[in-house]
Specification:
Elements (H helix, E strand, L loop, with lengths): L2 E5 L2 E5 L6 E2 L2 H14 L4 H4 L6
Antiparallel strand pairs: 1-2, 2-3
The structure holds zinc ion.
Length: 52
C-alpha cells in the first residue's frame, strides 16, 4: 500500500516498493503497481517523483 507522509505541511505518497515519493496519490499507486509487477521502475512514472 502507498504510504502517506506529511512533511513541512506537504503531503507525499510513498511507493512501498521503491520508496520514491510523489505529490499525487494516483502516480504513487501507478508506480507501486508497476514496481510490483516488473520489479523495476518506469522512468515515465519516476520522473514525477519528488525529493523530500
Ligand atoms: Zn515504485
Amino acid at each position: 500500500m502507498v504510504e502517506k507522509l506529511t512533511e513541512n505541511n506537504k503531503t507525499y505518497y510513498i511507493c512501498e516498493e521503491c520508496s520514491f515519493a510523489y505529490k499525487d496519490k494516483k502516480t504513487a499507486l501507478k508506480c507501486e503497481a508497476w514496481c510490483r509487477k516488473y520489479k523495476s521502475c518506469n522512468v515515465e512514472i519516476t520522473k514525477h517523483a519528488v525529493k523530500i
